[in-house]
Protein: Multifunctional fusion protein
Amino acid sequence: MSVLIDIQHPHPIVDSLRLKKIGQFILDELDISDSELSIVCVSDEKIATLNEQYREKSGPTNVLSFSMQEGEFSHLRQNMLGDVVLSLDTTMREADESNTPFDHRLIFLLIHGVLHLIGYDHETTAKDAEKMNEQTQILFSKIVESPLMMPTETVRQKIIDLSQQLHYHQNLYYIKAQPEISDAEFDRLFDELLMLEKHYPELAVPESPTSRVGSDLDNAFETVAHTKPILSLDKCYSISDIQDWALKIVKKADRPPTFILDEKLDGISIILTYKDGRLIQAATRGNGTYGNDVTANVKTIAAIPLKLPSPANLTIRGEIFIRRSVFKEIERTEGISYDSPRNLAAGAVRRKTSRETAKIPLNIYVYDIVDGTDLPSDNHYHLRSYLIDMGFPLNPHTFYFEKTDDQFCEAVEKAISQRNSLDYEIDGLVVKVSEQSVRDNLGVTGRFPRWAMAFKFESPQAITEIKGIDIQIGRLGRITPVARLKPVRVGGAEITNATLHNQDYIDELGASIGDVVKISRRGDVIPAVEEVLEKQSENPLTWKMPTHCPFCNTQLMKDGGHHFCVNIHCPQRQKASLIHFASKTGMDIENLGPKTIEILIDNQLIHCMEDIYSFDPEKLTGIEGFKTKKIAAIKRGIEDSKNRPFETVLAALGIKNLGIGLIKLLVNSGIDSFDALIDIAKQNHVERLVAIKGVKENIANSIIASFQDERILKTIETLKNVGLKMAATKAVPDAIEQQTMKEQRWCITGQFEHFKPRSKAGEEIEKRGGIVVGSVSKKTTHLLAGEKAGSKLKKARDLGLNIVFEKDFLDLLG
Structure:
């Protein structure tokens, strides 16, 4: 990827490096990072000349795009995307007129220009214009919420400041064992620096903390080299994240791996080296390459064997720790309050004499063989018995998995639940590939091994202020209060909203508008307010839920911990239901997105689901943004949706407890039509539903109540009359497709005449045994290309993939 910046304006007012980084970011987001782009900043006079010469239009304009992929430039290098020429004068003038920051306007125009280079056009049809505007807004939002908005000098100074802070806190943590900040705060600083260096690698300081794994090197001890790098682990904060990681490893590994789940002890990492069965060295992790020799002190730990029962050559990694019960006894007898067992253990290992270290009853669990000869197995879990035979203490709470299924999640949850009952402190869990050969094949990233992942208990956190509390309402009427926050970065992302769950949660926190609060970002879910740190003085009272729905003024009802609007005619509930019905998880009605649904409701063209199939789209004529072609596309999308299968129609209704997973269970059990569900409800046949594995009694009662609801029955009848599928299609054995696409990996891009939505093409591929993937890579075997295929087509050609166009695809299907 190459972005060239050419400032030809007589009074340059742009940050060249930042503009280059923004250009690189745009190319990367558009998946055309292997292209070259030239960004030229000129005056009105210069762009007016170009406008006249190439567009035969007089006067200046804001941006011009010159593609090198077509026309008179097409003979040039294939990876040269083209030039985007920006008038700084016009940009400044437009920014002033719209009361928009100059930088924002410049970025918007740059995105606009690049999109033109790859085939977007806003001057042909309303749909094309909408598509281009949508893509522009997506890219613009990502950029303005990123560090790319900071001036280069600000970034440079920020990187220096963060590096100094992290070095300072690393020294306190590893050397002095007297940390001043929490692990979560250290991780926040580290992640912020990592993100800045990702965008600006040339501004990283030579001794950046991100290029090291954290160091416990102490000049008072001799420095020794590790035989193999001792790396720290990458981390995540949710069970779903660690399971996703494991699934990715299964796909990347050269053979099916197995996994070990260990507790992550909050202690001191130590590397023990044995030669001919004798302990010859104990070293701290240090910076991963070098550590401190603390052999004399470590030999005082009774649990560590000084001589093995056989003359083995081994390098073992373990964790030195102090049991909680021992820690409390030390504090009681010495009359001294220590910060934590971990800090006391760290200090004990580095005491000046081994006699002083011996006064502290340290313990150890070993957990990995770093290096060794003549090992009896390639599998580290199977090597546990070997280590036990050698006399090493191992953590008994270790799990072994041959696949990451429900049992895996249960083990993680069990380990989390028993954390507080342990006699030692853990700050997370570690999942590792068990086979050494698979580890070697996966390798490392430079800082972390790819074959291991740490699950940290504490989520990334930050402190901010509640600026307001908004009410959100779902299609089933559930009310969720959401805190509007002063923007703050948490775990590398800018957070402006955080859930407050419900009134009980708010009461427990004592939260109100203006409070200073701690928020966390639990994995990738919506951020949550965790704690009120400081009450605002003007109104110290806790915020209270309104007594009536702010959208329809109906009195709210509390059920359990949540408030509900029980008015089925509430405009916000109806809006949420209609948006769900038309969405991709519902009927997948093309050209009927949330904004269009809102316009239809606001103009009183639709009020309920069935109205979508009876209203006249021509009534949209005259409303801004709705021209003839768009109206025709909406008609087509609505008509096409009538062919969706019964399962999709049922899920789109948004009936409580009836998600697609449960619907599949019902259909597979023979309850495969609306008539069957209505008949079960009429007979109140709870037993028929409970007999299905996975359906509990409360769910069964909920389903029956829904299909006794006259409103739902009326909706079903109306949808039946407009031609929607009322029953599942029976599979015909003779019609089962041959697996002609087995093991083929297809990526689909562009627009198709015969496959609307294009997910239908994916269904045809999957029926024939193929796999549909979202992006083009070396593992992709085929690209199905429609009209306006874009950058994926270019990448597929570069990789030499099989490219199939719609006509050929239809021939393949027969």
Notes: The first strand starts at residue 2 and ends at 7. The chain is about 35% helix and 20% strand.
